[in-house]
Amino acid sequence: MADRKTGGGQQPDAKGEASGDIKTDASAKIERDSFVHTFFKKGAEFTDELLRENDRLRKRLFDLESENAALRTHLASDEAIRELLRKIEYLEREKEQLLSHVREAERNSSHLFTRYSEVEEELSNLAHLYVASYQLHSTLHLREVLRHLKELLTQLVGSRAHAFYLKDGSDLVPISSDGIELSRLPRLAIHAGSRKEEDRGSRDRTGDLIERVFMTGVAHIEEGELSTAPRDQPAACVPMRIDDAVVGVIVIYSLLDQKEQFLPVDYALFKMLGAHAATALMGALLFANSNGKFPGLEAIDAITRNVGDDLK
Predict the structure, then answer these.
(1) Complete edge-to-edge strand list for the sheet that includes strand 220-221
(2) How far is the C-alpha of 47 from the C-alpha of 35, rounded, in Å?
(3) Which of 44, 85, 136, 205 gives a 20 to 30 Å CA spacing to 147?
(4) What digits encode the pLDDT tens for the residues 146-189?
């Protein structure tokens, strides 16, 4: 039996063979354990390395996502800015259009305001003229007529000193003055070249001017700035008329300081005074000459008949 097991050679020691197998198994186990240990160790190291790489990649992905979000935000911000710029440009155009409309409206408003002021001034001038004419013919008392004339010249024209001359024969006689003594005003000859010698020696040209205005019937009114007007002659001389006859002259020697120049309303007032002051003064003088008595019925009938005959 033993030969069949060993093949006819030297038979191994059964104990020694068992001992060798045990050693071989132990060595193999050690190698296996060592391999397994090494394998798992490398696997663990590889796993750790994979985890670290995974963390790095995850962090990198987070960073890229953050950068992407920042870029998206930046792009959105740029688009918002561009939109705002377009909006601002649109608003600027709209603002220019509105300003243009406002300027046009202001020009129209200024034109309307100017026209309104002109109309208001014309109405005021008409009111002044109405009041002036009403006051002049509201009384036949010479003192009242002169007071009204003084108020009109002072309040409406701005007169500081003035006088009224009426024709008396061949002379012009000062009958009333304000702001200048009446006794200082000379009688003036009204025939050209026949001025009295005492008047010819006068340094100013007042006498010549009053005489010329009376003779020609053309008013003299300083134009432009009154501060530059000659000091040796009146600022204005206005002829007083009854119908077509010149019967006197209104002389304005000086004006209040605030009066810088004559205005259109002054010219209109001078024209009205030239037509109405003489009739008011003459009516007052005739009334005073009649001792304040009104014409009786007989006189009225006679006047009516004469008027009727003249109209036939």
Answers:
(1) 188-189, 171-178, 159-168, 245-255, 236-242, 220-221
(2) 17
(3) 205
(4) 998 998 898 888 999 999 999 988 889 999 999 999 998 988 88
Q: Are 179 and 160 in contact (CB under 8 A)?
A: yes
The DSSP string of 233-257 is S-SEEEEEEETTEEEEEEEEEEE-T
Structure tokens at 245: 């006859």
Cα–Cα dist 256/155, whole Å: 10
Q: 18 or 51, which is more confident?
A: 51
Contact 266, 154 (CB under 8 A): no
Q: What crossing angle do the helices spanning 264-289 and 14-136 adopt, rounded to 10°?
A: 30
Left if phi > 0, otherwise alpha if psi is -120 to 50, otherwise beta: which for 186? Answer: beta
The upper half-sphere exposure of residue 251, i.e. CA atoms within 13 Å in the direction of its Cβ, equals: 32
Distance CA 126, CA 179 (A): 27
Distance CA 310, CA 312 (A): 6
Among residues 264, 149, 200, which one has the least CA distance to residue 166? 149
Q: And the tokens for 145?
A: 């007529």
Question: Could you tell me if 170 and 215 are in contact, meaning their C-beta atoms sit under 8 angstroms apart?
Answer: no
Comparing 11-20, 125-134, 235-244, 287-296, the range with the smallest average pLDDT is 11-20
Residue 312 pLDDT grade (very low, low, confident, very high; cuts 50, 70, 90): low
Q: Residue 234 burial (CB < 10 Å; 0-12/13-18/19+)?
A: buried
pTM beyond cutoff 0.85: no
Rounded-to-10 torsion of CA 114, 119, 124, 125: 100
Geometric angle at alpha carbon 176, from 172 and 180, rounded to 5°: 105
